[in-house]
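S.,

As promised, the adenosine-5'-triphosphate run. Input:
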Amino acid sequence: MNMTVEWKAITKQYRSQTALRGVTATLSGNKIIGLLGRNGSGKTSLLSMMKGLLRPTSGSILVQGQTPYENSELARQICFVRDSRMAYGFAKTRDALAIAASAWPNWDADYASALADRFELPLDTKVQHLSRGMESALGAILGLASRAPLTLLDETYIGMDAHARYLFYEELLADYIRFPRMLILSTHLIEEVGKLFEEVVVIDRGTLLLHEPVEQLLMKAYSVTGTEYDVDRFTEDQLVLYTLGGGSLKSASVFGEMTDHLRKLADLYHLEVRSLPLQDLFVHLTSRQEVRA
Ligand SMILES: Nc1ncnc2c1ncn2[C@@H]1O[C@H](COP(=O)(O)OP(=O)(O)OP(=O)(O)O)[C@@H](O)[C@H]1O
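Predicted complex:
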């Protein structure tokens, strides 16, 4: 199944609060997509509308050409992992997995049980009594074992410790390779998860800032390091995101493409050129107005 999600001029208003403003984009193909945005930028609202839990105030959202809102057939193809405590609070963990098994047509019970072992999930504990990390692990297991063609993970791994998070990344990638599907992960931990993404969507204060393949995005910025004099003359006409150091060792992060001409100039000025980590680029994209132009 080749998944397609269309956002058509989506606006979401909660009373006086506008969470999303005219967001338009088409996501297609089996991919791991990062949904990035600062706190309150509108990520959860967007994910909830993709699952059909909310309706846009204006505009429309289509998953496989259909409206997800009140569409129970389509809902079985879309797994949205957010708050396991809310969804399964009174059930024991083992029962939550059994409920999930009946909800998802592609549920893999053996895989769910192998994951429960790997994450050391206590099966006889009520979901509402799970530790934060274990609740996150349950969410990760539900998201992975559902094998839903569209899987939405809203900061699923946020309560996990580093060991569990890396286990989750490893499982996510391995299972995605075995069963390609569209996985959308909203996150703040870009440095850790960034390597998994093929494509990123950045939402800033309710508007779509960019939607691009990661490879293409990373080509849009770089850092140069050298003496202050050389770095300053190299970056004179460029959009500098931030600088570090000075004197004999200064580094400047630049938003713009590294052309052949610039590379020759950097060589001439004995500057070291590096690509910018996705996390740095994200922080600066969402904090500077000029970059949006
Ligand atoms: N039910 C609601 N009623 C009123 N305002 C809401 C509601 N849900 C979200 N909002 C507001 O809409 C905006 C976007 O919220 P949303 O939860 O979608 O953002 P987010 O990017 O997921 O945030 P975070 O990263 O902090 O979880 C915020 O200003 C939030 O306060």
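The domain at 217-288 is CATH 3.30.70.2020 (Alpha-Beta Plaits). The pocket of adenosine-5'-triphosphate is lined by residues 14, 17, 19, 37, 39-45 (CB under 6 Å).

- D.
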